Amino acid sequence: MVAPTEVRLNWPPRDDGKRGPSDRQAEFLKCGAKEQLYGGSKRGGKTVAGCAKAIYLSYLFPGNRGFIFRQAFTDLRDSTLVTFFSLCPPELILGHNRSEHRITIRSRDDKYPSTIIYRGLGEDAIGGVSAQKAKEKAKAIETGWFWVDEPSEVAFDAYTMMLAQLCWFLPDGTRPPYMALLTSNPEPGWVKDRFVDADHTDCIIGKADARFIRSLPRDNPGLPPGWESDLRATMDSEWVRRYLDGSWDIHEGMVFEELDERVHNLDNYFDTTNDTMWTAFHKGFRKVGCLDHASTGITAYIMSGFDTDENCFGLQEYFQANKRISEHAKGIEELESWYGKPEYRLIDPSTESDTLQNGQLMYSVQSAYCDATYKHVEPGHEITTIAAHRAHISVGIDVIKEYLHVNPLHRNPFTNELGSPRLFISKNRNPNGWREMVGLKKRLRPDGTIEFVGEDHWIDDLRYILTSRPRAAERKKLDVSKLPVHAQIQHNAADKFFAKWGRNMNEGSWF
After folding, report:
1. Positive or negative torsion for Cα 327, 299, 193, 267
2. Averaged pLDDT in 10-residue chunks for the chain of 511 residues
3. 208 lies in the same domain as 295
4. What is each CA distance from 105 to 48, 111, 112, 179, 186, in whole angstroms?
5. Who contacts 199 (Cβ-Cβ below 8 Å, separation ≥6)?
6. The pTM is what?
7. Is residue 406 assigned to a domain?
8. C-beta of residue 153 within 8 angstroms of C-beta of residue 70
9. Are residues 488 and 448 both part of a single domain?
């Protein structure tokens, strides 16, 4: 798609004296992908870009019909529509029916004007129409394009329903280019999963028919001088990473604010997809596993490793839904075949309860995994576990945060520089775990207590592992015979000293 030269929008003024789209906005206006996400930071010019593309799609394709959506109608009315009417030349607006939320736009063919309908999806009442009725009405209307401002506020099933309505015919019998436009600040959820994290060559929308165009404040030439530098100097680092650097791994209410993909992601330090390098990496670790079972829903298992400096590494996950215990056991066994049997395996302590029945016999989920008597696993393939310590979730969360904390006195195991966390996770091998870490939120209840909101199957495994106080890996024994003669003498002398004087002080006097 190309912006028409015969339409002159009222672009905001810029410091360079020019008017028109920024380079990023121009890239968005030219994009022809079916699904397009633009933005990713504060003041990146996303609303102006969305309004401009809505006007161009209406003008270029006579008789086109488009929708503008936002979760809250008041936000749509007070923000999005204000920008729309300030950007759109008055001569293009042929009519505005406020009761029906319908704007009639002049097209390049005067015989066939285009229509823009705007709706709020989450209000109790929209112009006398209930929110549910508004959704149902939107679902019944065919459209050529739609724009969702701040789509992270909108449910994914509502978005997919809108996609299904992209089937509008133009008056001449042709079809317009169907487009779903999204403009958003960084937020966790389906928008991030679908556009930012997805590999668009294999994703569900198919054949690279989706595009994410990132726009940062520095890409917006219309901001006041010093706007970004002033905020960088006054706002906290998490706010800066989210709104100025466009990080999708930081969001309001985020539990693990310390999580930084540049620091904690193992994949940044070497090629974790190379099986030879990966095997050499974890070979000497002390391994600990943990299982979070669910009869329905997600069952998660983590294989973790600990090096000699007590660094914890999230090696690989097993993450499956709605399978039998026998299937989970087989999947866990296959994962462990790559790493070796762990020193011990933990399991959610709730699985100790006898909630399963075999004839007249009641037994627990933990027993079903580790005892072939109950017919869930075959003899020789049992998954033996230890019930994890029962502790409040906030205790385990705090331990994880301590491991994520960059300690200025701790040495990084990869760079050998001071200033390092003690927790590293391979995002390649733990995609669901990383997603849970980013998405988990904390919320204040009316009674003043904190509740955690979001998926936490993988996180439960990690907190059980870390609160079990696993030991560091053993250091390799020194082969004294290969040392130089003077070093052997020093080593033997030290051994004799500690053999005599290195007793525990609680055993009594040293003399």
Report:
1. negative
2. 70 75 89 90 84 94 94 89 93 93 94 94 50 53 91 86 92 94 85 73 49 83 78 79 75 82 93 94 94 89 95 96 90 94 93 76 85 78 88 91 94 94 96 91 80 89 94 72 74 75 51 42
3. no
4. 17, 12, 9, 18, 31
5. none
6. 0.60
7. yes
8. yes
9. no
